[in-house]
Amino acid sequence: MGLSEYNRKRNFKVTSEPSGEAPAPPRQEGVRHFVIQKHAASRLHYDFRLELEGVLKSWSVPKGPSLDTRVKRLAVHVEDHPLAYAEFEGIIPKGEYGGGTVLLWDRGTWEPLGDPHQSYAAGNLKFNLKGKKLQGGFALVKLRGRGAQREKDQERAWLLIKERDAHVVPEETSDITRARPESVTTGRTLDEIAADRSQVWHSNRDQVDAGGAAGGRVAPPPTRIRPPRFAARATPPRGDGWLHEMAIEGERLLARNAGGQLALLDDNGAPLGAAAARKRSAVADAIRMLPAQSLVVDGVLAAMTPDGLPHAAALSGALAGKGKATLAYLVFDLPYLDGHDLARVPLAARKKLLAELVRASSEPGPLRFLDHVAGDGAAFQREARRLGIAAMVSRRAGSPYGARAGWVRAPCAVSAKR
Ligand code: MN
């Protein structure tokens, strides 16, 4: 079968699963590994994988293995997986092929009875397992379809059966999948793995590269952040070299992820209290899903009403889950990313990295990149006024993130007639 089908089904920019090119774990001559991964996808199943012919031959077993010889479990033969997959436990992002949580349910070595290549080709594999949960003889037997009536599904249908030996346990006595639900490597349950967002993005992911930004400085995640203020101006700045954005009516909100330690911060850089953070947990979840270990983003939390514009008055309702407005977290700056302090990196470059980061998320939730228009402030103001936007903010394309940022805010609307 090879790995072409495996690779074709997956987008390795999004999923943390190993690609077919990932280096295989160190091998011992003559030792064959097996692994069983409990997979909470659209339907829970157990992926039974045997190392053979340089790949993991794989079967999807909806009910999982049984230690009872009378129980025959359907095992649907699926595409070969790379050997490196045997190490994988974590989350496959939603929307990706096989999206869901993967738990390493059992692993160890297997010994075929007879020639494994011939037995596999003949659809009748008998073998001994030496795992943590499964031991002794098992058989994987291909179901015989009914002549010309045979369908593709039947072509793939095999049965997993326990062979008679000292390791048999009748179903009435105990069901191994119920008795031992936990991960064989970490002892965690599926729920615990699903809650650990740190394993969504793994070593082979495609990261947004903070190291390439000119002006960046290698540094640990900041413990103290002072969000720059926007100075009020009667008119927007003239001339080139400015980036203009719509001023969002809402709540200034920053998010800091320091290697999985997530904090939401207010406009002074102070952490929100537990209750306030809980109401904004959708923001924290979206930040965890970004392809970065550590970052600080600056933005505004807003309530978007059905007219597509943010309305400050609707925010408390949206936070309480009431009303028609939906929460949106519009991010406009990125002062820190994965080991790099970006405060001295020009704003235009920080925003470019931020845009890439948001675009790379498979689950952005309420997260939105707040785009800008470069150029003359008066032209932006005219356009914004036409769209009914009340105010705008302007920042120099080269401005740092910090006390001397020099950011300004100006009204767009002509003062309303009373
Ligand atoms: Mn699966």
Write up what this structure looks like:
The chain has 418 residues and is of the alpha+beta class. It folds into 2 domains: 4-199, no CATH class; 217-411, DNA ligase/mRNA capping enzyme (D-amino Acid Aminotransferase, Chain A, domain 1, 2-Layer Sandwich). The chain is 17% helix and 33% strand. It is built from 10 helices and 21 strands. The strands form 3 sheets. It has an 8-stranded antiparallel β-barrel with strand order 1-2-3-4-9-8-7-6. Strands 10, 13, 14, 15, 16, 17 and 18 form a 7-stranded mixed β-sheet that branches. Strands 11-21-20-12-19 form a 5-stranded mixed β-sheet, covered by helices on one side. Strand 5 (90-92) and strand 6 (100-112) form a beta hairpin. The longest helix is centred in the C-terminal third of the chain and has 13 residues, at 347-359. The radius of gyration is 28 Å and the shape is elongated. Residues 201-206 have low confidence and may be disordered. Manganese (II) ion binds at residues 39, 41, 45, 47, 60, 98.
The description of the largest β-sheet is: 8 strands, antiparallel, barrel
* Share of helical residues: 10-25%
Question: Which stretches of 5+ consecutive residues score pLDDT under 50?
Answer: 201-206
Q: In oligomeric terms, what are we looking at?
A: single chain
**What's the end-to-end separation, in Å?**
75 Å
Overall structural domain count: 2
**How large a portion of the residues is in β-strands, by DSSP E?**
25-35%
